[in-house]
Design a protein that fits this description.
- The complex is a heterodimer of chains A (267) and B (254).
- With 267 residues, chain A is α/β, with parallel strands linked by helices.
- Chain A has a domain of 133 residues: P-loop containing nucleotide triphosphate hydrolases (Rossmann fold).
- Helices cover 34% and strands 25% of the residues of chain A.
- Chain A has seven helices and ten strands.
- In chain A, helix 2 crosses helix 3 and helix 2 runs parallel beside helix 4.
- Chain B has 254 residues and is an all-alpha fold.
- Chain B has two domains: 30 residues; 210 residues, MetI-like (MetI-like fold), CATH 1.10.3720.
- Helix content of chain B is 81%, strand content 0%.
- Classes of the chains: A alpha/beta (267), B mainly alpha (254).
Chain lengths: 267, 254
């Protein structure tokens, strides 16, 4: 089976005034095409560095990042990104915010086609009728929905998400999890989701990667066997014994990850 | 109703200000060489209306020219400081130091550097006094851009220029206009400094000076009011531009 994302033996350190700060150490992570990888780990363990590496925004000191069988050396147009902060542009309408990546990736595409594509996605996430609104007129959950639309409008191979639901309240978050599944059914993509929420990782992920404390390495990989396994996972599934067992395993692994560097947050 | 209120409130405020001024002069029984009253002014305007028109025009165009230079140079300097840490560290002390110098002391320097170039000197002074806020605000606006904003475009392979044009520039506009409003009033001060201090000046500043030499006190106050009116006009012109180009930054009123 070919992997769409292959991270092989990546090691990276940041230069700080106090010397080198190693964040990733011999990290391996593979995601087959169309699969959804959730990455969990203790705070400050280098998860965001991982997203920047996959996006080609930086190069690792050692090791290789492969996308689609090609070595990643610089940013490529086939990546979509979403962050905890929706980073919508206040001076643009919701529609024009979603169109933004198309202006970079497909500048020659006729405007009508861009609009049609954006409207289609906005409808998928339940934002029909909000196209002309400004971001400031929308709620936090709606802004994050628009941000998700923007991250996949150019049909990227890989969607990289860095805690996209972290700032939302619990119910809005669950709504967005379901939206995420709907999007995946209609717009197949390979995804890497960085998260702090173990339930989120189990509900959304096909595989859950647990990273160790800093410097992070792949400590544990969980193959998610979601109850009633099919594309449309049900939220109720999270409250079954199978899920409880997976969550307990992950919880245990996080404890081990934290234990390795009890003062990891103190840096 | 709202538009009426928007025009009526400032208008009434000005009327109250004039009435208070008139009352203070009357109550203290000040002669016009201490403080002219508003009722002295119409006579000054009607007597010298031609000089006022010419002087206002000269002051206005030189101020606007200086301001235009300040916008160009200030934006450029702000971009350099916003994008380069080294430039920021190197330029800030010089800029702050330069801004702390009383600009009146530069008038003789400029007069000797560019002898007889009155228009040029005036525009230059308006520029020198007003570029600082623009450079600082553009610099801060660009250097505080959250990295995520850059990353959403950079991850798609967008060039630095595209990122600047599509994100950094529009995002900095509200700060830019805030600074421009400060710069408008500063530029007037620069223009008038040269007009008043340098011999054979032109513009409203020179008219003020001739009022002084002829002990025509109402004329001097009339010049000050004319300057204030020009300042208000130019300020609201900037507000208009801000509405057009950065109106999105205004929160809708509840």
């Amino acid at each position: 089976m070919t992997n769409l994302i292959d991270i092989k033996g990546v090691t990276h350190a940041y230069k700080t005034p106090k010397g080198l700060l190693p964040v990733l150490s011999n990290l391996n992570l593979s995601v087959p095409e169309g699969e959804f990888a959730a990455v969990v780990g203790p705070s400050g363990c280098g998860k965001s560095t991982l997203t920047r590496l996959v996006a080609g925004l930086m190069k690792p000191d050692q090791g290789e990042v492969w996308l689609h069988g090609k070595l990643v050396k610089s940013p490529r147009k086939t990546v979509g990104m979403a962050f905890q902060n929706p980073v919508l542009l206040e001076w643009r309408s919701i529609l024009d915010n979603v169109i933004l990546p198309l202006e970079i990736v497909a500048p020659s595409m006729p405007r009508a086609q861009k609009v049609a594509r954006a409207e289609e996605l906005l409808a998928l996430v339940g934002l029909s009728g909000f196209e002309t609104k400004r971001p400031s007129e929308l709620s936090g959950g709606m802004r994050q929905r628009a941000s998700l639309c923007r991250s996949i409008v150019h049909k990227p191979d890989v969607l990289i998400m860095d805690e996209p639901f972290g700032a939302l309240d619990a119910f809005t978050r669950e709504d967005l999890w379901q939206t995420m599944h709907d999007l995946r059914t209609k717009e197949p993509f390979t995804a890497v989701l960085i998260t702090h929420d173990l339930r989120e990782s189990v509900y959304l992920g096909d595989q859950v990667f647990v990273l160790s404390g800093r410097p992070a390495t792949t400590q544990y990989v969980l193959d998610v066997q979601y109850p009633g396994q099919d594309r449309q996972r049900k939220l109720d599934g999270l409250y079954t014994p199978e899920c409880s067992e997976m969550l307990a395993t992950l919880r245990e692994q996080i404890k081990i990850a934290q234990g390795r560097h009890p003062d990891a947050a103190g840096h | 109703m709202q538009t009426f209120q928007k025009i009526a409130v400032p208008f009434i405020a000005i009327l109250i200000f004039i009435a208070l001024w008139e009352f203070l002069v009357w109550a203290n029984n000040w002669p016009d060489y201490v403080m002219a009253s508003p009722s002295d002014l119409p006579a000054a305007y009607s007597k010298f209306w031609e000089l006022f028109l010419i002087g206002s025009w000269q002051t206005l165009w030189r101020t606007v020219a200086g301001l235009a230079l300040a916008v160009l140079f200030g934006t450029l300097l702000g971009m350099i400081m916003g994008f380069s840490r080294i430039a920021r560290d190197g330029l800030y002390p010089i800029l702050v130091g330069f801004n702390a110098i009383p600009k009146a002391t530069l008038v003789p320097v400029l007069a000797l550097l560019f002898i007889g170039q009155h228009n040029f000197n005036t525009v230059l002074m308006a520029f020198l006094i007003s570029f600082f806020p623009i450079a600082v605000s553009v610099g801060i606006g660009l250097s505080t851009l959250e990295p995520e904003y850059r990353d959403i475009l950079r991850s798609l392979g967008a060039s630095r220029f595209t990122i600047f044009r599509k994100i950094a520039l529009p995002k900095t506009l509200p700060e830019f206009f805030g600074a421009l409003k400060v710069s408008v009033t500063l530029a007037f001060i620069g223009t008038n400094l040269v007009e008043i201090i340098s011999p054979h000046g032109r513009g409203l500043g020179a008219l003020f000076l001739s009022g002084q030499t002829n002990s025509n006190y109402p004329l001097m106050f009339a010049v000050l009011i004319a300057l204030a009116v020009l300042g208000i006009i130019l300020y609201y012109f900037v507000v208009l531009l801000e509405r057009i180009f950065a109106g999105w930054a205004e929160r809708p009123q509840q």
